[in-house]
Amino acid sequence: MALIRRRGKRWQAVIRRNGWPKQSRAFATRADAEAWARELESEMDRGVFVRRDLAESTTLRELLERYAAEVVPGHKGREPEALRCAVLAKTELAARFVATLRRRDFSGYARTRLKVRKPATVRREIQLFHAAIEWARDEEDIYLPDNPARHVKLPPLNNERQRRLLPGEEELLLAACSHVERARGANGTFKDAGTLVWWLRPLIVLAIETAMRRGELLALTWRDIDLDRRIAQLHTSKNGKPRKVPLSTRAIETLRAMPRTLHGPVIPTTPNAVKLAWPRLLVRARKRYLAERARTGQGDEGLLAGLRLHDLRHEGTSRLAERVPNVVELSAITGHLDLNMLRRYYHPNAERLAEKLG
After folding, report:
1. pLDDT at 239
2. End-to-end CA distance of the chain
3. CA quadruple 294, 295, 301, 307: dihedral positive or negative?
4. CB 346: neighbour CB atoms within 10 A?
């Protein structure tokens, strides 16, 4: 028989049976404690008992923190995923005990987030919730009859982009890489209003010339570069398959001009540093452009607006497509396993296609 006892203002039920883990839980009333004890003892009698105490005492925040510490470091995108875990751990949903979570909780979270974030962002967050809970069920012995983050309905993604560099944008970006705005300080002296990072210029040039992803560029080491054979060896990529990327003359010239260490990275920085530096670069470039436009009265108001770093891969792929018309050869360079995915980046200039038609 279970032990039912008064502990302060609550009633505690304690179950001790040979061959089963000790179970205890506090309730507001004695009747609730007795009902809970009878249910668990019945399950033990029938041999179908499963532990619920971990799910009832572990919050989603604790689960996310453990997932970030034990699982995320082994993932390719560990830095952004770790940051995402930290953000999700601060939500109201994360304060709940795992056993109390239901699918409607995650559906409500998704609906609320869709008011301020794009579907792709919300989808990644729900997928992270799902992955963390699934890991806890499989590896941490946290019993849940089902994953409450499963089957959460989200709007379909419609994030296909066809953004290519407009005339003058590449020049503006590269000029901003070697320029830092100056501002007059409180004491009357000039000080830098921004930080100049030398690796931004080669990062942009290599992204355009090779169509590599940001993660692939940051993973490159000097041992992976063969300047004589004009090849960069990628050991890991988004699709998990290694590949060799041919280097253009401009890419070779850029690499030769860069400082290097024998075994160090080609671009010595982190994904988060790139994420922070890119919008600052756009601000500098657009500020200079708008000042020039105000002076001359000429130019495109939308120049540089909405430009993303990943758009440089799009631009690079489109430029390669003009020189490498064979789509299979092009996929070998860019690393697209699905040719339908390659189509998203393949947007050759219509005027040049017209010239080919004669």
Report:
1. 67
2. 92
3. negative
4. 19
